[in-house]
Structure formats: structure tokens, C-alpha cells
Amino acid sequence: MKYYDKLVFELSREGRTGYSLPANPWSKGAETLPAALRRSTPAALPQVSEVDVVRHYTNLSQMNFGVDTGFYPLGSCTMKYNPKINEEIAAMPGFQRLHPLQPACSVQGALEVYYEMNKALAAITGMSLFTFNPCAGAHGELTGLMIMRQYHLLRGDVKRTRVIVPDSAHGTNPASAAVCGLEVVVVKSTPEGLVDVNDLKPLLDDTIAGIMMTNPNTLGLFEKEIVEIASLVHACGGLLYYDGANMNPMLGVVRPGDMGFDIMHLNLHKTFSTPHGGGGPGSGPVGVAARLADIIPVPKVVRSSDGTFQVVGASEKTAGQVSGFLGNFGIILRAYAYILALGKENIKLAGKLSVLGANYIKESLKDAYKLPIPTVCKHEFVFDGLINDGAHDEVHGATTLDVAKRLLDFGFHAPTIYFPLLFHQAIMIEPTETESKETMDAFIEVMHKIAAEAAQDPTILQEAPHTTPVRRPDETRAARQPILKFGDAAV
After folding, report:
1. Most buried among 65, 170, 285, 413, by the most CB within 10 A?
2. Inter-residue contact 399 to 392 (CB < 8 Å)
3. What is the domain range of residue 131?
4. Cβ(134)–Cβ(265) under 8 Å?
């Protein structure tokens, strides 16, 4: 272990400090915290110099992996590069220093961003209107289902309490439905990885509120029967919900609204290049077809007849309110900058290049990794572990987890593993459109090297990673018995 790999508490020395502040003139009198709110003993904070603090946090930042440090082929999550122009625009003082409680007349520029972003997303997706209130993708899913349920309730159709979810769906789909008080009904996939229309038909009756789908689906395959599926669901009185997690390859090529979807969410932190991971902030705006426009959550931004922008609140038909204000403005602003930078002429290149990259990697690696569905994919694809003799799930003891861990030694983040659950040794890869051919070639070369190591000496993989500060933590124990403090220090 390097010296600065130590915890900041281990660097602490009694009496050492990294700052010197003048006495606070407001610390006496009424401004003093009430006794009931003050600690009885000082907080057990580390006592370190400024240089130790700087080195400690700089060292921690260098241990992290992200899209700015290397290739992040995380299937189903679209971890694309975040252009720095987005950050510069979001940091402009006129945007950065706003407060959500300012009167509308003082934030006209920000409200115009909401309004114009709404128009841009509507054009891209074929929806009529968006709400930006949801703060993440799963939050958007819940919001979309609230809209779906409110639509049926307003019509007095109280029996529609079931939602159909494909067996290949993202795990958040059934979870969101359950949180919304809806019963989940699973529709099976065909051997080709698509929704089984024959299995769907018997599920459709007057209790179905709708269906949740991702297109392309979680296997990276386009649902070719989507027009028939939409017709069948609409015929039984249900609505179609589009999970926008996989919208990236569709940009400028196909619109969910044109496929027949009534409600959808977008992950701005995926498709539109805003920061992703680390707990947020995210943004999951929800779009609806014209007949559902009155039901979207409030508040929302409208343009008055005099050209000014206003924030509108209560509505009799609305599905409610899902956040305190208008959502994560800084994230929406970054995504808007990305859309303007590409323009309608170039945004379609994002989808096409992501599809090209995924198929290039898939075809280059199918000689070493099992490809359960050998067809053209969209933005991502799924292997089912390393190629073997067909009698075992593992090749000489090397598992999908071992492959993922070994990748870290070569400076690549691991792809998504063991998902979707349709395949026992799933390896899910998505390159995104921002990766160069040289980067993809380097990844392909390393994946072939790992396959060769698995056959020659699988212990190399089983003991990987060899070069990272933390190797193979007990993830189950970390989740169930987390250690949240250093030693006996009180927090």
C-alpha cells in the first residue's frame, strides 16, 4: 500500500490542522445553536494538514474509473462521454446561481430552456409534451405509470390494475409497477429474444393498464413486431409505456411515438451525455401523447400570449406532483447543450455509430465468446460466457465474473455481467458512439487475450484483478454489514 492509500483517519496526528480562521463575530447571543442541537463531545474528525487533505482526495479521485479515464462498455446503461462544453454552459453564472423560488420574471432564460428543451425532445421522440420533474430514470418510470393509472381512473376504468412486462425487461420496470400499486404480468420472449406475440395475446383483457417495453430491448434487439403489439394493447384499452434507457441507437432514426407508444421516459444522463453514476444527479423526463397532455405532473412551463414564460401549477386532471420544483435544471441544461451542438442534421449519427460499433465488437469476438442470438444487434449485445465444449458453464474454471475482473488490469471497465437473466453467464457490452475504432480494437484485443488466458491458465483470471487498490471485496457482506466509521470514532 502506498502511503496516501491510507484512510484520512490514519494520516491524522493530534494537534495538526490545515486551516486558521478568525473568530466568528456572530457566534454569541441568539445565533448560538440551542443546547439540544449541540454535540456533547467534539466530532472525531481527522486532524491533518492542508497538503495531506489535498493529496488524500486527489489520490481517491485517481482510484475512480469513469468515462473521462477509460472505456466504459456498460451494457444497458449508455455510459457515453460528457462533452465539456456542456459543463461550461451549466457553470455560467446566470444559470448556476439561480434559486428555484425566484419569481418567473427573474428567470426567463431558464424557463425558456425548459420550454425549448420540451420542443426538442418532442421532435426527437414523437411525443407531444414532456415533464422534467422526475429526477432519474426509475423516478420517470414511476411517473409514467402514475400517468397511465390516472388516465384509466379519469375514465372510471378502475379494473385496470395490471401491467405487462417482458421477461427481458430492466429490473426497474417491475419494481416501478409494484411501487405504483400495479400487478406485474410477465410476457415471455421467443428464442430470438423478442416479445412473444402469441404469449402476449392471452394476457390482454380489460384488467390490463398497459405494457412496459424497451425498444431496442435489453438484448439490443429491435422489436420487429412493435406495430402489431401496439395495435393489440390499444385494442384491449391499454397504453404503451416506453422505457427510454435504450433510446440512444434510435436518435434521429425511429421515434417511439411513431411506433405507437403513449408514454415514455428518457434518461438524460444516458442518451444525452450528462454526468452519470455516483448517486446522481440524474434526470428522467417523461413524455406523453397529445391525449395525455393534461395528466402530466405539475408544475410545468408554458409560454404566455405576450411571449413570456410562466410556471403553471395545479390542474384537475394531473397525476400529481413528483418533485419539489421543475427537476434537475443543471442536468437538463447540459442535455440541451448537447442537442444544440449536434443539431437535427447530426443527431442521427449518434444512433447509427452506436449500432455500428456494437456490431463491430460482436462480430470480432464471437469466435471466443458464446453468442446466443447471432443476429444484427442495435446499440448493445449479449454474450453467454466464453466458448466451451457445451458441457459446462465455465471454461477451465473461468467465469463471466473472472473475465470482468481481469479487464480491470488492462484499464477497461467491466461490461454489465449476469444480466439479463435470460443467460446464465451473460456479458452485456455497449460501446456507445463516442468510442473510436482504435479504442474498440484495443478492447477486442484484450478480450481475446483474456479468452486465451482462460484456456491456458485460468488462475490468472480467478485471482484478478492484480493491479487495483481493492481487488475482490465481499459485496454481499459489504451490503449487509457495512462498516461506516473508522475504528471507534464517533460520527
Report:
1. 285
2. no
3. 84-341
4. yes
Cβ atoms of 272 and 266 closer than 8 Å: yes
Q: Give the residue among 98, 148, 136 at the shortest CA–CA distance from 327.
A: 136
Other CB atoms within a 10 A radius of the CB of residue 333 amount to: 24
Instruction: Identify the bridge partners of residue 212 per DSSP, sorted by sequence position.
Output: 241
Is 334 among the domain residues? yes
Model pTM score: 0.90
Question: Do 88 and 46 lie in a common domain?
Answer: no
Phi, then psi, of 147 in degrees rounded to 5: -65, -45
Q: Return the closest-CA partner of residue 219 out of 477, 479, 427.
A: 427
Predicted local distance difference test score (pLDDT) of residue 281: 79
- Total residue length of the chain: 491
Nearest to 288 by CA among 250, 261, 252: 261
8 Å CB contact between 164 and 197: no
The vertex-93 CA angle with 91 and 94, nearest 5°, equals 115
CA diameter of the chain: 79
Are 254 and 277 within one domain?
A: yes
Q: End of a domain among 341, 371, 387?
A: 341
Tally of structural domains, the chain:
3
- What the block records as the C-alpha cell of 376 is 444484427
- Residue pointed to by grid coordinates 481527522: 46
Supply φ then ψ for residue 426, to 5 degrees. -60, 135
Judge if 379 and 314 occupy the same domain: no
Three-class DSSP category at 218: coil
The reply to whether 487 falls in a domain is: no
pLDDT score at 491: 47
DSSP-assigned letters across all residues of 331-397 = HHHHHHHHHHHHHHHHHHHHHHHHHHHHHHHHHHHTTTB--SS-S--SS-EEEESB---SS-SSBTT
Query: Grid coordinates standing for 169?
Result: 425487461
CATH number at residue 362: 3.90.1150.10
**Which segments in the chain show pLDDT lower than 50?**
389, 391-392, 490-491
Residues 186 and 272 in one domain: yes
Which residues pair with residue 74 across a beta bridge? 429
Is 398 in contact with 457 (CB distance < 8 Å)? no
- The torsion angles phi and psi of 383, rounded to 5 degrees, stand at -95, 160
| Domain assignment present for 318 | yes
With cell 449541540, the residue in question is 38
In a domain, 102, yes or no: yes
How big is the chain by its Cα radius of gyration, in Å? 25
Q: Are residues 8 and 24 in the same domain?
A: yes
- Same domain for 334 and 247: yes
- Torsion sign (Cα): 126, 225, 179, 317: positive
